[in-house]
Design a protein that fits this description.
Number of helices: 13
Strand content: 5-15%
Structural class: alpha/beta
Order of helices and strands: EHHEHEEEEEEHHHHHHEHEHEHEHE
Helix content: 25-40%
Oligomer: single chain
């Protein structure tokens, strides 16, 4: 990071000297590009096999099934990136459960994913032998495949990506439990009808097979890492490069990037800008995450002043927020050029305490994902960030800024450090296990 005393788990600010920032922006480290090139070559070998029923995967040439979850979009994308990245690091090919109906899907890239993420593979899940698709559970190996995940108490319906359980059984809510179809355990357990079981959202979408968290599955411990880029460059770089790969190669990305450039956001090409993210909405009344805090616009403006005092006046300020009042307050400042999306933000106002994005079905719309991703892409094209790291959009932005620029960009957080144990620190980030092992591959570094 250019500061030997900087600590992602403790520090709220990363503010290298102006001289250092100028030097590294003109001459970013060559190894970032060479390591990313190696990483993409490794991924493509795993994901684009000559025979889709026989990928070059260390788990007996089988795919592992992964899926998006029901949380908000930012955490969804961050967690999904971590899941697929950890599989690729371990030499395991992955396939998304594209047929499970995801709450935000636009249906154009499958029922279970989004056109804002890259297609994981050109292989068609509908044509793969079910025995070649491993469905990880939380109970450790041996793991079931889609051929037997539903056991004798149900049937896997390929086009729906879910188990249709027999009469008297219901899908296991976690989707990764044993058995996948179970008898009701209490009076609170409700057996869904066929249509609800196959096309309903919470909790039945959660019951679909697919891995969502490597910490719970233990998958990386069963398959040691085959390259050591996470140890060489750190988790921040490692996750940022996988995030870069999945988002910048997505079908919808070019439109979002073009919008950003048309609005003067291109820090890498001499159009300097600062990204500011103000999260209000459910962050102000989330009963499940009481560590989250809301801040007045004045606090963000003060941090902007710190950045410009250290690095000079910036051409543009991109402001991402779910609160229209923040826009109105910011525009009172006539000394800056503000850019923001012209959208209605009323829908993001919670109806009451605990009315969070994770549970609000009225926000189950593809347009919500597009608005979110436009903010993310626009902010990623700036060269500095001010925001809160208790909001996962902050994690995405600082990582994507770094991956675009080729160096770590300055940032200021108003609440908690990026790698605090309640933020990115909750993931398996710095641990030295599973340690890389040498395998028979020309791609091992």
């Amino acid at each position: 990071f250019g500061k030997c005393d900087f600590d992602l788990a403790k520090d709220l600010e990363y503010l290298p000297s102006r001289r250092y920032l100028s030097a590294i922006s003109k001459s970013p480290p060559d190894t970032w590009q060479s390591d990313y090139k190696y990483l993409t070559k490794h991924i493509e070998r795993l994901q684009e096999p000559q025979n889709c029923d026989h990928p070059d995967s260390v788990d007996h040439n089988r795919w592992h099934l992964v899926k998006l979850i029901q949380a908000g979009i930012g955490f969804n994308i961050y967690l999904f990136t971590d899941v697929v990245g950890r599989h690729w690091e371990s030499g395991v090919s992955v396939m998304a459960n594209k047929n499970n109906l995801w709450r935000f899907t636009d249906l154009k890239c499958g029922r279970g994913t989004t056109c804002h993420l890259k297609e994981l593979t050109q292989c068609d899940i509908n044509k793969i032998d079910l025995k070649q698709l491993v469905a990880i559970t939380h109970h450790g190996p041996p793991w079931p495949t889609l051929d037997d995940i539903c056991t004798e108490n149900g049937e896997y319906i390929v086009e729906k990506g879910r188990c249709l359980c027999n009469d008297g059984y219901l899908p296991h809510e976690s989707g990764v439990g044993d058995p996948a179809c179970m008898k009701p355990q209490s009076d609170r357990d409700r057996i869904p009808g066929k249509d609800e079981a196959l096309d309903g959202h919470i909790p039945w979408s959660l019951a679909a097979p697919g891995e969502v968290d490597t910490g719970g599955s233990g998958c990386p411990h069963a398959f040691p890492a085959v390259h050591k880029l996470r140890w060489k460059n750190g988790f921040f770089w490692w996750h940022a490069m996988h995030l870069h790969y999945l988002t910048r190669n997505a079908p919808n990305y070019p439109k979002l990037e073009e919008w950003s450039r048309l609005h003067g956001l291109d820090h890498k090409n001499k159009k300097s800008c600062v990204a500011i993210h103000v999260r209000h909405g459910d962050a102000c009344m989330d009963k499940y995450s009481l560590h989250r805090t809301c801040h007045h616009w004045r606090e963000y403006a003060d941090k902007l002043e710190i950045l410009e005092k250290k690095y000079g006046k910036q051409d543009t300020i991109f402001l991402a927020t779910d609160d229209q009042k923040v826009i109105e307050e910011a525009l009172k400042d006539r000394s800056h050029k503000f850019v923001f999306q012209n959208i209605s933000r009323d829908k993001y106002t919670p109806k009451g305490w605990g009315d969070t994005i994770d549970t609000r079905e009225d926000l189950n719309k593809p347009s919500v994902v597009t608005e979110f991703m436009q903010d993310v892409v626009a902010m990623s094209m700036c060269g500095m960030f001010v925001g809160t790291f208790t909001s996962s959009i902050g994690w995405l932005v600082v990582e994507l800024q770094a991956s675009r620029l080729g160096y770590y960009a300055p940032f200021i957080a108003l609440d908690m450090p990026y790698a605090h144990e309640k933020n990115v620190g909750r993931f398996l980030t710095w641990q030295d296990y599973p340690k890389p092992v040498i395998k028979q591959s020309g791609l091992i570094s």
